[in-house]
Inverse folding.
C-alpha cells in the first residue's frame, strides 16, 4: 500500500495524519533545497503551524536533482518523519510541501513565484557549497555564476534569487524576507552580500530598494538528519513510503529578527526569536560541530564507521569531554539563562543515538572549510594549553594524507585539487605545507609555529603507535 492522500487512515497505527489540505492553502514560503534536513526541520515546524489552521504552504525548489520530487509526487507530497532515539520514537505523516520545482527546468515559474506578492518568505538549505563564495566570502565568479549572469538555464541559488529580486523590483517593489537556514556563520549577512554583488552586475538601479526592502535575518538551526536509507519495513509502517526521513528528536531554530510579518508566518513557539543569534550559533559551532569533526577524524582512524560507535569508546568520549571542558568552554561567552554544561552533556548524549547511524566519513569531508571555523578559531582565542586541539588537527591531516594515498576519488573537499597537488609535488612536506597555507590556517606566526611543532610530534606518534593508546595517554 502506497502512502498518498487516498490511504485508508483506519490502517494507520501510531502514525499521525495531517488535518489540513495543503492544496487549498495559499502560496507563502518558497524553499530552496528540499532535502532530508529541510523535511526533518523547517518543514516540521511549518507542519505544526498548519495543524493550527494557518493558511500557508511551502513550494520547494531543488537545484541539483529531480529525485526528491519524483519520489514525493506519487505520494501527493506526503512523507513520514520518524523522530527516534534509544528511548523515544514518534512517526508523523507531513504534507506542508505543495509541490517541488527543478531549477534547470522551471526557471520562469520560479521567477514568477519570487516576484509574486503571495510569497512573503524565501528559506534556504543548500549547504555551504550552494552559496558560491570564495575564501573571503565574496561571490566566486565560477563558470556556473558566469552562466547564470547570462540568464540561461539557471543552476545556482544566487542566479535564481538575483534575477527574481530584480523582477520583483520591476513588477511590484514589495518587501521580501530571505532566510538562510544553512549551517553557516553570519548566513544572512553573507547571502545578502552575494546577491548584492550579482545584482550589481545585472541591474544596479534596484540596489537602494534592495537595501531597504529585502531582509536577510541571521538564523541558527540544529538537528542531526543522516542519510541512512531506512525503509518503511524497518519501522513497521503499514504502508510504503519512498520519501521517509529519519531524524533525532532534538531540534533548535533561532532567528534574529524583529519583523512582525516573519513572526506571524512562523508562529510556532518552538521557534526562538532572539536579539543576538551569534551567541547560540557560536556555542553550536564550537561545541557540537567541533566535537563532530573531532569524532569524525579520531573515530575513523580508530576503525569506527558511525558517530555512536566512536562516542561509546570510553577513551574517545573522555577525550572529547576534556577537549570541551579544558579548551573550548573557557573561550565561550556565558549567559545566565543558558546552561552551557547542560547543553554540552545533551550533545554528547545525542551522539550516542544508535538509530541515527551518522557516518564519520560523511562528517569528515570538507575539513578545510570546517576546521578553521569549528576548531582553529578556538585555538586562536585560547590562552591556555591546547593539546587536544593540536591532536585533532594532527588527526585531520593524517586522515587527509591516508585518504588521498588510498583513493583520491573518496575525498570531497573544496580544496581537494590543492591537496592532490601538495601530495603529488611535495609529499614529504605534506603536513607542513598545509599548516603554512594561510587560507586554511589563519594563525599568527607564534601560533603557527606552536601548531607545527605539536602536529609533527603527534604525527610521528600516530605512525608508530595505536591511536587508541595515544588517546589513553593524552586523557591520563
Amino acid at each position: 500500500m502506497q502512502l498518498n492522500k487516498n490511504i485508508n487512515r483506519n490502517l494507520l497505527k501510531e502514525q499521525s495524519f495531517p488535518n489540513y489540505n495543503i492544496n487549498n492553502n495559499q502560496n507563502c514560503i518558497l524553499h530552496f533545497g528540499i532535502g532530508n534536513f529541510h523535511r526533518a526541520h523547517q518543514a516540521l515546524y511549518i507542519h505544526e503551524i498548519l495543524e493550527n489552521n494557518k493558511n500557508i504552504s511551502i513550494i520547494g525548489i531543488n537545484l541539483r536533482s529531480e529525485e526528491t520530487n519524483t519520489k514525493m509526487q506519487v505520494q501527493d507530497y506526503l512523507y513520514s518523519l520518524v523522530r527516534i532515539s534509544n528511548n523515544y520514537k514518534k512517526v508523523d505523516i507531513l504534507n506542508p510541501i505543495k509541490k517541488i520545482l527543478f531549477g534547470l527546468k522551471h526557471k520562469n515559474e520560479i521567477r514568477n513565484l519570487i516576484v509574486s506578492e503571495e510569497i512573503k518568505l524565501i528559506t534556504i538549505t543548500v549547504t555551504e557549497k550552494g552559496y558560491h563564495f570564495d575564501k573571503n566570502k565574496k561571490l566566486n565568479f565560477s563558470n556556473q555564476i558566469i552562466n547564470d549572469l547570462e540568464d540561461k538555464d539557471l543552476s545556482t541559488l544566487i542566479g535564481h534569487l538575483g534575477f527574481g529580486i530584480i523582477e520583483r523590483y520591476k513588477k511590484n517593489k514589495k518587501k521580501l524576507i530571505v532566510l538562510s537556514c544553512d549551517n553557516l556563520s553570519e548566513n544572512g549577512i553573507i547571502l545578502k552580500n552575494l546577491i548584492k554583488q550579482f545584482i550589481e552586475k545585472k541591474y544596479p538601479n534596484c540596489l537602494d530598494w534592495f537595501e531597504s526592502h529585502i531582509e536577510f535575518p541571521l538564523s541558527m538551526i540544529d538537528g542531526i538528519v543522516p542519510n541512512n536509507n531506512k525503509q518503511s519495513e524497518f519501522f513497521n509502517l503499514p504502508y510504503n513510503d519512498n520519501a521517509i526521513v529519519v531524524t533525532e528528536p532534538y531540534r533548535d531554530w533561532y532567528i534574529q529578527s524583529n519583523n512582525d510579518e516573519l513572526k506571524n508566518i512562523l508562529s510556532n513557539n518552538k521557534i526562538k526569536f532572539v536579539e543576538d543569534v551569534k551567541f547560540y550559533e557560536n556555542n553550536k559551532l564550537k561545541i557540537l560541530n567541533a566535537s563532530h569533526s573531532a569524532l569524525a577524524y579520531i573515530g575513523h582512524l580508530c576503525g569506527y564507521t558511525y558517530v555512536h560507535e566512536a562516542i561509546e569508546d570510553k577513551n574517545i568520549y573522555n577525550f572529547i569531554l576534556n577537549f570541551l571542558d579544558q579548551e573550548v568552554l573557557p573561550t565561550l561567552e556565558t549567559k545566565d539563562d543558558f546552561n552551557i554544561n547542560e547543553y554540552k552533556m545533551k550533545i554528547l548524549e545525542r551522539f550516542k543515538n544508535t538509530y541515527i547511524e551518522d557516518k564519520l566519513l560523511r562528517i569528515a569531508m570538507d575539513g578545510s572549510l570546517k576546521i578553521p571555523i569549528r576548531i582553529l578559531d578556538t585555538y586562536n582565542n585560547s590562552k591556555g594549553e591546547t593539546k587536544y586541539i593540536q591532536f585533532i588537527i594532527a588527526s585531520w591531516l593524517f586522515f587527509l594524507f591516508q585518504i588521498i594515498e588510498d583513493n583520491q576519488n573518496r575525498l570531497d573537499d573544496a580544496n581537494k585539487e590543492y591537496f592532490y597537488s601538495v601530495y603529488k609535488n611535495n609529499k614529504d612536506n605534506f603536513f607542513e605545507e598545509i599548516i603554512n597555507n594561510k587560507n586554511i590556517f589563519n594563525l599568527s606566526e607564534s601560533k603557527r609555529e606552536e601548531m607545527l611543532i605539536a602536529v609533527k610530534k603527534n604525527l610521528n606518534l600516530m605512525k608508530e603507535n595505536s591511536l587508541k593508546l595515544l588517546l589513553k595517554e593524552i586523557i591520563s
